[in-house]
Amino acid sequence: MAKAAKTNTEDYLRMYTQMVRIRAFEDNANQLYLSAKMPGLTHMSSGQEAVAVGICEALTPEDKITSTHRGHGHCVAKGAEFKAMFCELLGKEEGYCRGKGGSMHIADQSNGNLGANAIVGGSMGIATGAALSAKMQKTGAVAVCFFGDGATAQGLWYEVMNMAALWGLPVIYACENNGYSEYTRTDEIAAGSITARAEAFGIESYDLDGQDVLAVNDLTQKLVERCRKGEGPFFMNLKTYRYHGHHVGDINREYYRAKDEESEWKTTRDPITNFGKWLEGEKIATTDELIEINNSVRKEAEEAVAYALEAKYPDVSEVDMHVYVA
Amino acid sequence: MREITLSKAVNEAIAEEMRRDPTVFLMGEDVAEAGTPFKVLAGLVEEFGTERVIDTPISEPGFVGLAVGAAMTGTRPIVDLMFGDFIFLVMDQLCNQAAKTHYMSGGKLSVPMVLRTNMGATRRSAAQHSQSLHALVAHIPGLKVAMPSSAYEAKGLMKTAIRDNNPVVIFEDKLMYQDKAPVPEEEYLIPFGVANVKREGTDITLIGTSSMVQVAEAAADILASEGISAEVIDPRTIVPLDEETLIKSVKKTSRAIVIDEGHQSYGVTGEIAARLNEKAFYHLDAPVVRMGAMDVPVPFSPALEDITVPTPEGVAAMARKLCSGEMIHAA
Ligand SMILES: Cc1ncc(C[n+]2csc(CCOP(=O)(O)OP(=O)(O)O)c2C)c(N)n1
Ligand SMILES: [Mg+2]
After folding, report:
1. Is the CB of A42 under 6 A from ligand 1?
2. Confidence at A6, pLDDT banded by 50, 70, 90
3. For position B176, which CATH number holds?
4. A119 contacts B89? CB cut-off 8 A
5. Residue A268 domain boundaries
6. Phi, psi of B56 (to 5 degrees)
7. Could you say which of A284, B56, B76, B311 would form a disulfide bridge with A279 (CB–CB 3.0 to 4.6 Å)?
């Protein structure tokens, strides 16, 4: 763990709680799939919590994020509520997108989440555009573009980095580098260094441990401040790991990823366990207090699931609503 | 005859053509060891190796561009585009480059490549993984477009596509990969531009593409029980289109519904209906009706998604109206 001054106990506990909330959300979403209660497939972000939370805790609701197909964590970390999220996953009227988007398209306008995206790399232009508009309108807002290591193969990234660097846009490109592009190791399909690619545009870039929520948060706070002063853009390459398969249906995956590797990450590099230990070591929280956080978050998630299962589907008349702005 | 899945049929077609012609190779995301997310290409890398079954980065415009160049210089690439929705990413390479090269070069260059991708809603995959975008490429001269409606067509059309000297785009319905149909063990090809009359009838012609052939057949069953005799036709390729067979049928039945899973506006249904109006007007007793997918992005919620696509009941209801003369004076 990075040595952060023990300045704000509340912030630390909120970061811990937010990571636990993401894990609880994902466990319940997975259960909904396994019990055939969820339409379609979904991509779990368990294991990657420290990236989403470390970054989003350094942002205000006015700051924008763009998310990915593996987007539940970003959404929770940016302040979303469980009920409206589970309703969205189940295609219900009270979902964040009235059931129209589902897991891969959750957006939460109220908290500055411009949306998950089912096109790999599809949000790179959007995030950069949000940074352009922040600069034009002098809002002081920053945009964070989350994407995976696989997405660095999309040419769009290189086009928008060029413009962001040319025009000094307040955007942070955050690569959640979990080592895999679907069912293929990314190092088998990526040449050279990802960080060097951003550096080639003159973009200040950082490689860091994405399992260390404090390190992620510290760096993000600094970069966000500098973005607000017009020193952006930046690139963060965050080494992390996804615990589940590519999506909930990807269960037999030993042909591309060894069980040993998975258990190694889970047992030694879990962002929640390790941060919990640090909190205890620094006497910020006791074991019992952490257990209590876990229990109450689990309860909240289960109640939200029960609520969403009973909630109404949108009326069929909504089908052609929202195609155009009224 | 043995029955195999549509997935297996595609796999067999590609394997047979790769054995037959060493210049044929496969390229796309997760095509090798993973055999694609739908497992359609499973086993091919084991037989043909990673030189001919190539996993690419997630760089769709890049690898489609590579395929165009490779096709212009002596090979026959089959490019796998994981979801039909990603066709928007590769439009320049496909439509500005592949489609026009032969023409622009005055016939000197050619692009013998196949782009295989998919289509079809109701899989709860939301608006960016559910589209049926074949009309977009069918609009571009220089591209051929095949739409298999069963395992049998999937195999025969794929083999023809691979041997064709033009760029061909094949749209498979992703909900049909596990559907079985009789497929002969012996080799066969299905020529492009030859429609298949699936069922003969006298009162109305139902023209369906891809999975809408099944919808048309199910509608024909409903109608038969009410004494309405429907003819069902599968064009199999929309470019080239077998107008002759369609016109002949409509001249006989004097009514037609065109059913396709693309959006109804500016789509395949409108194109086919227009040709029938132009070329069989005298024989028509009712307007030719288009039944496409609703003009909305595909919604995620099951409560909404299911009403966006044509159904057998909806087609049967429309056929009833046409046969009873209800549509003739429609405003
Ligand atoms: C343009 C595009 N190509 C391919 C896909 C299919 N696909 C979905 S996720 C994925 C892998 C993405 O890998 P990465 O960016 O590393 O994100 P991760 O899944 O590891 O979080 C692929 C190939 C897609 N959704 N969009
Ligand atoms: Mg990845």
Report:
1. no
2. low
3. 3.40.50.970
4. yes
5. 9-309
6. -110, 160
7. A284
